[in-house]
Amino acid sequence: MRPRGNVQFDNSGRVVLVTGGAGGIGLAICQAFAASGATTYAVDVSQPEPGVELPAKLILGDVSQREDCQRVVAQVVEEAGALDVLVNNAAIQPPDSYRAIDQLSPAVWDKMVAINLSGYTYMAMAVAAVMRKQQSGVIVNMASAQGHRTAREVPAYGPIKAANLMQAKQWGVELAREGVRVVSVSPGAVGTPLLRASLAQQGGEAPLANRHPLGRIAEPPEIAAAVMWLASDGASFVTATDLEVDGGLGAFAAFADPFSVTTIPGQNDH
Ligand SMILES: NC(=O)c1ccc[n+]([C@@H]2O[C@H](COP(=O)([O-])OP(=O)(O)OC[C@H]3O[C@@H](n4cnc5c(N)ncnc54)[C@H](O)[C@@H]3O)[C@@H](O)[C@H]2O)c1
């Protein structure tokens, strides 16, 4: 096999805070930052699953609560003396959110808005003040392919993910002359507890994988790798924009002849 190239990151001395860092994509992001030398914090409502080692300091907190966001950011800055990277990642997509708009429970809507939208804003409110003072920092919003284009029965998740994209553009523009970059990442399907909980609603694993031109579902470290680059100085001219990390999903039209369900040799060894 030909060499594929490699990137190594050095985040020594940097302080990173990942929301929803105890599991799924957030855990992979914590692992990547910690492995590259960053002082890494996770805020989460849950502990990691048994047997999972979190290479970050876990602060329990609920991002839908503004006081929690303020408390967590204050604790990080107090302990670590700075805050260089915020990854707004904590979000929910419960199976009972897969409904047509007139069947969606208002309670589910309110909860998703509170976590997936207000949570991102409350964290940014607290962190932007710190970064403005530092005159440096990076905020990464975890958005989704479903923020760009939609499917049936995602009347809450999709529109809120679209708002996460616009938050990054808005804050990126506002903070551009303060040394702070703000970007978003839009994954396709990624193998995490959130995805596994709704595989049935998405037609099952093999058909979902097959809708991606690369023919598979991403591994969480593949999303973390994009976050690492965006948060690094290698992306110093990248702000107020989005990076789709979606295995080609967004480019593949609904009118296109679907791929037959096969895997591509060499593509699944990540
Ligand atoms: N998995 C996918 O296919 C996929 C695709 C596109 C985008 N995303 C996005 O990636 C991000 C991470 O998703 P995931 O698949 O890793 O989800 P996940 O459910 O596997 O993990 C989410 C983490 O967030 C935590 N969390 C939930 N509510 C919280 C709250 N109120 N406060 C703090 N922490 C909270 C959970 O405890 C969990 O540890 C989300 O923004 C999601 O929308 C996921």
From TrEMBL:
An example Gene Ontology molecular-function term: oxidoreductase activity, acting on the CH-OH group of donors, NAD or NADP as acceptor
Positions of transmembrane segments: none
Entry superkingdom: Bacteria
InterPro entries linked to this entry: NAD(P)-bd_dom_sf (IPR036291), SDR_fam (IPR002347)
Family statement drawn from the similarity comment of this UniProt entry: Belongs to the short-chain dehydrogenases/reductases (SDR) family.
Lineage: Bacteria, Pseudomonadati, Planctomycetota, Planctomycetia, Pirellulales
Protein name: NAD-dependent epimerase/dehydratase:Short-chaindehydrogenase/reductase SDR
